[in-house]
User: Fold this.
Amino acid sequence: MLLQFTCVSLFLSVVLALYVNQRWWPVEDVVKTADPSRDGLISVQTFGERIVLFVLNYIIFGMPEGNSPHGAFFLPHSATECAKILWRNGEAVAFYSVKMKGSLCDGTTSQCYLLPVLDTIFVQRKYRRGGLGMKMLRDFCQSFKTEDALGISCPISTAMYQVCLKYLQTYPEEQKRLWEVEAPGDWSQRVNIWLKIQMESSLSGRHGIHS
Assistant:
């Protein structure tokens, strides 16, 4: 079923509905629930939750809201990928996904991730600027308390850098743990995010003085 959705979304500029359980569902209904227990960040486990993740990731993000030149485009996640959906007032408003330490980087090599990596993070446009990005980043870091290093997939968007800056200012104890990484994330493929922010800020200041 998920593959059928993928084909439909590739050939249409706008997806209006999905065919699930022998009926058509408007896209906006797929990401809603009447279950009051769905509130906050919940791990994706069921087939239905995978459909919601697909809609958020590939249809809402990939089509109507578009991909800015400062962001990245994400393909549908595999059925084994770790992800959490953020539910609020009966609607799936955001999600993030994680490449687990020890999992394969891709299907073409035997390389495995050397640290947990925050791979995708997305908040619906109408819910942005409400602290949800920071909430998900905090949840990611808290989920791996015993890890000395955590990664965020390279390249990090401008908006995500702003989230990281605010987060690392709020939780300075995390400044040594967060790294921008390329797979599989060995020491030659990671840059400390806080250090990079400080260096870029310093360079911007110098350019301003020279100007």
About this structure: The chain has six helices and nine strands. The first strand starts at residue 17 and ends at 20. Residues 1-12, 66-74 have pLDDT under 50 and may be disordered. The domain at 2-210 is CATH 3.40.630.30 (Aminopeptidase).
